[in-house]
Automatic annotation (TrEMBL), chains A, B:
Classification of source organism: Bacteria, Pseudomonadati, Pseudomonadota, Betaproteobacteria, Rhodocyclales
UniProtKB keywords: Transferase
UniProt-listed GO biological process terms: polyphosphate metabolic process
Entry protein name: Polyphosphate:AMP phosphotransferase
GO MF terms, alphabetically ordered: polyphosphate:AMP phosphotransferase activity
Organism: Azonexus hydrophilus
């Protein structure tokens, strides 16, 4: 793995001095092209052995490019806001926008490598996390990002020499701490773990670039040239769409998960009122349970036909909780700041912290519903969304978030009745738009999209609940009941763990 | 102060049942008008005595309006990210966007009131903070916000009764804790402090609305009606511009702070190199000093004529620091998410945490420079900006942030020379735009704006440094030297304190 990076690569001062002005001019030029095109972000990971010159090279990159459009983020101990959310949240919030360069000094690799060296993390856990990372990086690349992962290597002897040299120079002596020497002791262990990590995550989409760290000039010039070359090539190549997944299967008969729903199910007024009260009070206890408040969070997804009663159901949930504990996030068209980020970014930013509840009124499933049907994104984009969404929800579940997803279904006739009623009711008129009427014409296409969505994203950790919603009372109680049951199960598990 | 709120106001069940549907329909209606107009946010503060029904009323407001466009934020102990920034940062980040309703359960008043009751805060400090709050709220109103501040009052006896009643009902018993009873003991003290706070902050722009909290129906109906009425009236009235401040004074002779600068000052190559090295190394020590890293942060502002060399100066600073410690924030046109917030919001969001450095390449001074000269905002808007900016920087200084502001000045002739040079240099061409040429034609207007800015915003805590920048070497060294001196002074103070 590291053979080529122990050859004692060097660049003499003369060459360095000659090369830098050319490199700098070219880098500035390409950086401005990237900035003006605003089509993709540049994500640079600088990782490697201690004392291998990560900081020095980052600082040089700053002096070679326009530092106003670069951001560097160093990640050490997570802040409490970060610790209360899934592992990747802090990295999502730090992603550079399209057109910008983001340098990660310490990245999503640091924690697993450190935890594996100290033994906190078992090999199987590490491999699971590396799988997550591979999928995350593939997503970034599919979203257009240029991802460059550098690993600075030093031979054992080289590391010792670098530390001594840093210590001698009064300008850099502060960088050498007791910990630096401690890490020297774990050199072999690090090589072992890093070797494994690099092999497993050395993907075609985001390969590792291993650079010998001993000589400052060689290391930085190498990185600068690779960054330049990669940015240039990325500018010339349009985003390559991933090969299309096997086509979605259309059943030959008319049977599907929606057609099989019994939409005639009803709940009389009296039953409704007593059950509503029962489940609301149960819900109100569950979200105040110390096992929930201290350890879990809740993400609710509401999707459904237009006029299926999402708003009404959400309102009934809300009535059982304290407004200070939950947020409703209505999903509309993405803002400017959201459009320059990967698709899922605008959902990551709203994730609740431990003890809190986020209710999404429409959600990330927009990509495989409206965006698919209306052609707002390409086929490869919505096809890969299934896997990305499953990953996303898997990460939520891993972090202790209970994910509960509802699809509210009404019949075409019931929808028509509700549309007409809304048009006739003064204070409900805002609820009906021309778009609703247009969507209605694509009823069958939406049915296909929903069925595919359910098949591909109903997982053990985050199953879909299909709600028969022709009768509002029935639907609301089913939503509340399902939610209570899911929460109870989760807290039972919590009880067992502790 | 609280006389009218101890009369035993009540609304009977009958009336409540009759009123609510009408109120609800009207509230929904007006909420949608506000949402569609997207002209102003609605900021609602719900504060008051413990057990006075704050939570209940907030939850009712949710059931009366469309909860998808309301956000409620409860503020208790600040997170570590919040604690590492000025006091108001957490409230700025929670402000609702134009068109939305934001309910603050616990607000910027909670901390000072609590600290005054426990005696942690002295009366003079409290009054100082109340002044800050008054100016903050005035800013919100001037920016268009509808600010409604509710204080729920209970008589001493009333509070005891409410606690008992809450305790009896199994659905609300959890709300009553030992602390609730502790607070009963400090009832008189709270009344005393709250009375003072309410008097001092009962401004014409954001008056307090005191509501008796004893009866649920009365309290919530009152709040609902006031919210409805205020939103309606705000929709009908266009934003009232504040009366214009005394006109800016134009000197009769041609003498001004810029004309008095000696732009011929120069620094030879040798001197430059030795001084650059000296101050860079001093700066690099200062930002690594434990007194800085643990307690202070640094905000740098770079303003100046076009082509005055801001970028070059920033680069020389950056070279002395670790890229992981600072961020450069280039200020361009505001994004969509920034345009629906008060003017200063987009700067608050970039404030550095303790130990970090933020370098603003252009800044909040845009309002009194380009926006004033080009007419991008109204005269009352830029006139009030001086005071708002001083407040902002005062808050930064209070929180331990060192604020250093540079104006880089070149002569009209030197600017012309640099513009031409840039046009002729391939890789500098991106630096010159048509806008630069247009700005140049308004040279004199910019001079007036700069002089007014310096006079009105050069404060003891955050003075302006005017930099003679015809000679780049001279300018860069002056910037570095000034920064080092300001940091040294700040750390000396830090040394004395501890």
């Amino acid at each position: 793995m590291f053979e080529s990076a122990e050859l004692g690569h060097e660049v003499d001062k003369e060459t360095f001095k000659k090369e830098v002005p050319l490199l700098r001019a070219a880098l500035l030029d390409v950086q401005y092209d990237v900035l003006q095109k605003k089509e993709f972000p540049v994500v640079i990971l600088i990782s490697g052995v201690d004392g291998s010159g990560k900081g020095e090279t980052i600082n040089l990159l700053y002096s070679w490019m326009d530092p106003r459009h670069i951001s560097t983020l160093a990640f050490s101990t997570p802040s409490d806001e970060e610790a209360a959310r899934p592992y990747m949240w802090r990295y999502w919030r730090a992603l550079p926008a399209k057109g910008k360069v983001g340098i990660f000094a310490g990245s999503w690799y640091s924690q697993p490598i450190a935890d594996r060296i100290t033994g906190v993390m078992r090999r199987a856990e590490l491999d699971e996390q590396l799988d997550d990372i591979n999928r995350f990086e593939a997503m970034l690349v599919n979203e257009g990002a240029l991802v460059l992962k550098f690993w600075f290597h030093l031979s054992k002897d080289g590391q010792k020499k670098r530390l001594k040299a840093l210590e001698k120079d009064p300008r850099t002596a502060w960088r050498v701490t007791k910990e630096s020497y401690d890490r020297l002791k774990t050199y072999d262990k690090l090589q072992d773990v890093a070797g494994h990590v690099l092999r497993v995550t050395n993907t075609a989409k985001a390969p590792w670039i291993i650079v010998e760290g001993t000589d400052d000039a060689y290391r930085s010039l190498t990185v600068g040239r690779i960054v330049l070359d990669a940015m240039k090539r990325r500018l010339q190549q349009p985003l390559q769409q991933v090969p299309v997944a096997p086509p979605i299967i259309h059943p030959i008969d008319r049977k599907n998960v929606l057609s099989e729903l019994d939409l005639t199910q009803k709940l009389g007024k009296k039953d409704y009122e007593s059950q509503l009260a029962k489940y609301q009070s149960r819900l109100s206890e569950l979200v105040r349970d110390p096992r929930f408040v201290g350890k879990r969070s809740l993400v609710l997804v509401f999707e459904g036909s237009d006029a299926a009663g999402k708003g009404g159901s959400i309102r009934r949930l809300g009535a059982a909780m304290d407004a200070r504990q939950y947020q409703i996030i209505p999903i509309a068209a993405p803002t400017e700041e959201e459009r320059v980020q990967p698709y899922l970014w605008r959902f990551w930013r709203h994730l609740p912290r431990t003890g809190r509840v986020a209710i999404f009124d429409r959600s990330w499933y927009g990509r495989v519903l409206v965006e698919r049907v209306e052609g707002f994104c390409s086929e490869p984009d919505w096809l890969r969304a299934y896997a990305e969404i499953n990953d996303f929800e898997h990460q939520l579940a891993q972090a202790g978030t209970v994910v509960v997803k509802f699809w509210l279904q009404i019949s075409a006739e019931e929808q028509l009745r509700r549309f007409k009623e809304r048009q006739d009711t003064e204070f409900k008129r805002f609820k009906i738009t021309d778009e609703d009427w247009r969507n209605r014409e694509k009823w069958d296409e939406y049915v296909s999209a929903v069925c595919d969505m359910v098949d591909r994203t109903s997982t053990g950790q985050a199953p879909w609940t299909l709600v028969e919603a022709n009768d509002k009372n029935f639907a609301r109680v089913k939503v509340l009941k399902t939610l209570c049951e899911r929460l109870e199960d989760a807290l039972k598990d919590e009880g067992k763990k502790s």
